[in-house]
# Entry
Amino acid sequence: MATMRKDFSIACLVILTISSIAFASEISSDFNLIEIAEKNYVHIGKHASIEAEKNDDIANIGFIVGDTCVAVIDTGGSINIGRKLKKSIRKITKKPICYVINTHIHYDHILGNKSFAEENPDFVGHKNLRDAINQNKKFFLSQFKKNLSKDAEESDIISPNILIEKSTKLELGNRILTLIPFPTSHSHNDIVVIDEKTKTLWAGDLIFRERIPSLTGSLKGWLKTIEKLKTLDTKLVIPGHGKVASSLEVALKQQEEYFKILLNKTREAIAEGKFINEAVEHIDKENKLKWLLHDYQHSTNVSKTYTELEWE
# Structure
């Protein structure tokens, strides 16, 4: 397969400090776009809170180029970020965008979908994603109005027309993607994408690095999902947030340790008769694992875990 590097000039080669990964091609310094594996391009999001002024660019998003067409994986937290991503794609290839894959419902992964609508791709997501987006359109319009167009309507928040119920393969032309849906974990509609040619795993928010995980689904479900992720045949892992990792072991280590602290310490607190506010006040307040945004997210994670475990 002819390399896409014939279609554009590479700005420079940079040493990328991502676990044991040695080199990657930096395609666009203005949009932080890196070819992390052959024909796999990722934009690394910033570590900022949802309330931050620039909250639209916090997720890792990107695309994979096949011989026939392109698959986009998450579109960012605003129409503007979606447009920047599409512009980056068009600097690299003129091939049609056949799929826009959303790894789950959260705004920082889906609000850029509208930017790709005129390309007429199939929008792809977990079997539960369409209903979840349709039920939350008013919420997105009220909470993230500035991330959309001035006259945005519910129709501008695009839900999938292809729903993934089981492991499914998509063909891009000499490049097969495997999409795997999971039960409730980070959210209620998580999927991952594997580029079979390079064994690159796009994990969405099932994996966080550097930035503290955000628990909105089920801690016990997420721990079970981690065990399933460990069985996947992958060489490179792109998390939903944070640095790319050279293996699943590297990608999951800190997150799994944190979840076990949440699980065990919350069970202890419940057994000792502590109220939820007492659990929030004491469990891992010192931020043992040195997560970014710990003070912003951790108390919510403890509250969610306490509620889940209280009547187990």
Remarks:
- The two ends are 53 Å apart (CA to CA).
